[in-house]
# Entry
Amino acid sequence: MKRTQIYLDEEIYKYLKEESKKTGKSISELIREKLKKEINQNKENLLKTIKEVAGIWSYKNEDVDNYIRNMRKGKRIDSF
# Structure
């Protein structure tokens, strides 16, 4: 585990202090728990999205690189 220091605004600090009293957990422990929950939720959302789009091109016989190149043709802006 690594040690770090963060600054909290008063509203967040008061909330965490109250939660700490209610639960008997330290403020640091509450912060770690909430961060872990957020990170895990983001991972789950990412995996869900990947599963939803997996195979989206499976019905196409076209090469993806060529398809993208053809879409971009004539749409480049020349530099001055």
Notes: The helical segments are 10-23, 27-53, 64-72. The first helix runs from residue 10 to 23. The chain has a mean pLDDT of 87. The two ends are 52 Å apart (CA to CA).
